[in-house]
Each structure stands twice: as structure tokens, then as C-alpha cells.
Amino acid sequence: MKYIIRAIKYFFYFAFLTTAIILALVLIGAVEGNIETIFEDGYNSLWKIAVFFAIVAAVYPKFGFVRRKLETEADWESVRSVAKAYFREKPFKVESETADSISFRRRDAIGRITKMCEDRITLSKTEEGFVLDGLRKDVFLYATGLESNILAASDKAE
Predict the structure, then answer these.
(1) In Å, what is the CA distance from 6 to each residue of 13, 111, 125?
(2) In sequence order, what are the residues at sequence separation of 6 or more whose Cβ sits closer than 8 angstroms to the Cβ of residue 10?
(3) What is the model's pTM?
């Protein structure tokens, strides 16, 4: 269900973004304000664009969201405390916490809106280790920093 909701969100996001760009072009006088002259096939092009957006939106969540295993031998309590401190320095706050996972959301409204409220990063304890789940760009960016901080914390503890 989450996948379908994300796909629908991205369809409307692409449509809104395209509409905003076309509106800006009309306002600056780069194109006429008539759909028949903006697109080669006029109104007939709109359904083609919608089909293209639907295809891209249907595929994007598959590649835009990832789960990445953290490379660490630390225990859950130290990983949890380091993660809280690490994300506190970033524009994130703790959203929820359970015995085996912790979820972070962006603090700033602008950041949440630009990511269409898909800004959640979840750190989970699994049988294989620890997994960071969220937007691809954020997961890869913060996983590397988190692993580095966990390593530094374990070095201090020794």
C-alpha cells in the first residue's frame, strides 16, 4: 500500500512541477498561453504526458527508496545512542522509537514539503545487523556518516 501511495504522490508531484514550469514560461512570455500552441499535438499531448508521468511515478519508488545494511559490529544500545546524537546534529528529530527501531523525521517544514513528507529515515535492528531505510540519497549520505560515528564511538570506548 505504501508503494502505491508513493507512486500516486510522485504522479501529482510531476504534474504540479510541469504545470509550474509551463505557467512560468507563459508568465515570462516565452510561450503563448494556449495549450494548442504550447504542445505540438495540443490537448492530445496532455494524455501522453500523463501516461509518461504515470509510468515514471510507478517505477520511481522502487529505485528512489532503499534499505542499506550498516557495516558495524556494535551492539544495539550503542548504535541507538550514536544515531540519536548523529541525527540531532542533522536537520532530523526522533519521530518514534520501539525496542528494535527508531524513526527520524526532518525538523523543518520546508524540507518535509520538498520531499513530499517522504523524509522518514528508519534505523532498525534485524537478524543480520542494522538497517537504515528511506530515500536513496538520504540513506547513502547518512549511513556513511553514521557508520563513521559508530566506529569513532567504539574506538573511544576501547
Answers:
(1) 10, 17, 25
(2) 56, 57, 60, 61, 116
(3) 0.77
